[in-house]
Amino acid sequence: MEYFLQQLINGVTLGSIYGLIAIGYTMVYGIIGMINFAHGDIFMIGSFTALILIVLLGVTAAMPVAMLVMALVLVLVLAMAFTAVWGWAVERVAYRPLRGSFRLAPLITAIGASIALQNFVQISQGARNKPLQPLISGNFKLTDGGPDGSALIVQLSYVQITIIVVTLLLMAGFTLLINRTSLGRAQRACEQDRKMAALLGVNVDRTISLTFVMGAALAAVAGVMFLLYYGVIDFYIGFLAGVKAFTAAVLGGIGSLPGAMLGGLLIGLIETFWSGYFSVEYKDVAAFSILAIVLIFMPEGLLGKPEVEKV
Amino acid sequence: MSTEQPLLRVRDLETYYGKIQALHGVNMDVYAGEIVTLIGANGAGKSTLMMSICGSPQAQAGTIHYEGADITRAQTYQTMRSGIAQSPEGRRIFPRMSVLENLLMGAMVSKPEYLDEDLAKVFALFPRLKERQHQRGGTLSGGEQQMLAIARALMSRPKLLLLDEPSLGLAPIIVKQIFEAIGELNKREGLTVFLVEQNAYHALKLAHRGYVMVNGVVTMSGTGKELLSREEVKAAYLEGGRH
Ligand SMILES: Nc1ncnc2c1ncn2[C@@H]1O[C@H](COP(=O)(O)OP(=O)(O)O)[C@@H](O)[C@H]1O
Ligand SMILES: [Mg+2]
Asked: What ipTM was assigned to the predicted interfaces of this complex?
């Protein structure tokens, strides 16, 4: 039971990170019908940006708590802003010039953009692992190890709390933005009928740009969380995290915002539980197998919208 | 009327889809306060003209002037922010948005302080929409979708309303309702309307003036009454249309 609870906590944490990245895949797919294969690398850029900022600002665990919190918030916001610019640039350079050309063209430039971002970071930052001393340490002990002290102590670390809380807040805020604001409405309009959106005065190019910007900002948050959680990053982390988050988006139903969140959570849980109970080596296979099985029975994913509604 | 400047002036307009030419030099005017209709057979180029006015696709030759300004090369969203609104062919309701959200999309380019007043206005015009305001657009009947498409266009407070075949596929009683609403808007508020129709009889009765389009060019023009009495118009566009 203790072991199960611990895996659950770890799985939700990992799922939060996947969910934040998955939102970017799903939103871009929704609005331009294309998989942004560079999105995982945008996440990686976010993580590196945060690391560089932490070093530049001299953020360490030795700081007073209030200052540390403020410094980390600042790092988060700056990383989001900086990464958002990268997301915007990728769209402008790699996708917009090809809009309206044959379907495979943007796929090829997407892969090109992904490789370019990886190589850029590899060359400018070096290929080796970048470690970060833990900034947020400490945890809550949820169980006491039983009467004889032999049972596992279930722990919820402060980093995990941070990740889960920040993710929940951002997802709630983002859902409100999409459902309740005129910007979100314009995005959904472009998703459903781009030509009609333009006929109502929506600047479609700008709306698409903003979608990339938002997706990148959320990926940056995931990058910061990843850095704080694992404490080590390299230029290649975007690949596997990107594939997982993409899987999450497809599992939840690509194009669906709640689907991306749910899919992220599920992939995180599947991966963690599989590692915990079966074997670490096959955790990725497990996640992809579940995806394959779900897609056989529900081709549009768990919360995907049926295509028939198109008018 | 010819001494004043038209609200919309189209000259020698040519539009292509790829290599296929759809408009072969169209000329027409719409003056402020008028209802002008354009009739023509399926495939004549009526919708292409409507969409070219809105810059989607952009015309390749000729000019479009609106309020004296050249909008031939304007981006669609810019044109739609300058007082032109369109209820396009096929209605194009956002299927996964509620009726209310569809209307809010229409109000995107108008000032927020007008929102309540304008919602009340279109709900008064089409009470059905008020009843259905929380229903998804995709679940409405054809007639309701058409009302919504017109209402959505009105939410931007246009000076010039472009309507592409609002009667298509609708029961005669609904067509009558919609045409009455258009006539009323024009009389009461002086709204200028450019109406494309295959339902020529109703359109010509409603309109002050009309144009006939054949294969991408305007072949006839005149007042609604004149065109209704022309033998060519009767023969080509009015059989069976008198319901
Ligand atoms: N998106 C398009 N791509 C290619 N050809 C088109 C397109 N839309 C219309 N056309 C062609 O342009 C001509 C005019 O069509 P349209 O403007 O829709 O006519 P109408 O509205 O009068 O029925 C037709 O020959 C039609 O086949
Ligand atoms: Mg048409």
From this structure: 0.94
